[in-house]
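[User]
Protein folding is very new to me. Any chance you could explain this protein sequence and its structure tokens? I have pasted everything here:
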Amino acid sequence: MNTFWATSPLSLATLIGAALTTGLTAGLLFAFAHCVMPGLRTLGDVEFLRAFQRVDTAIANPWMGLSFGGSPILTLAALLLHLREGGAVLLWLGAALALIIATIAITAAVNLPLNAQIQSAAPSFTDATALRERFERRWVTWNIVRTVTSVGSVLCLSAALLASPTA
């Protein structure tokens, strides 16, 4: 084993950055699953759609982009920087990468298109009841799935940190 690769400050910093950005992503999705959507569920149809539309507009910002986009990039970089190290750290990083890619794929394939439907219906929200019925259950279900995949990725990154030599 090459000790530079096993102990590189860059490889460790990248792994910590991956864990941090993935943790932020998982935390956001967890908060939606357990706080935001249950809170919005108590609103009438138009109020639900208007509130969701405003949250969706606010969430599209550079800080969220850095966290959400940084997670797979830093996880891949950590994997590449740990290649020569081998062992369990690579297995954990590979699993973390697969899980965060699943999170992003679900977001791109399901949640973002549903968000776009809400955005395109704003501000009038004509036929709000039907729009909410098409939107809410599917969005919530897939958000729970991506919450599980992102939390799984955080767990794998945590295991990778424990498996990575830091001497």
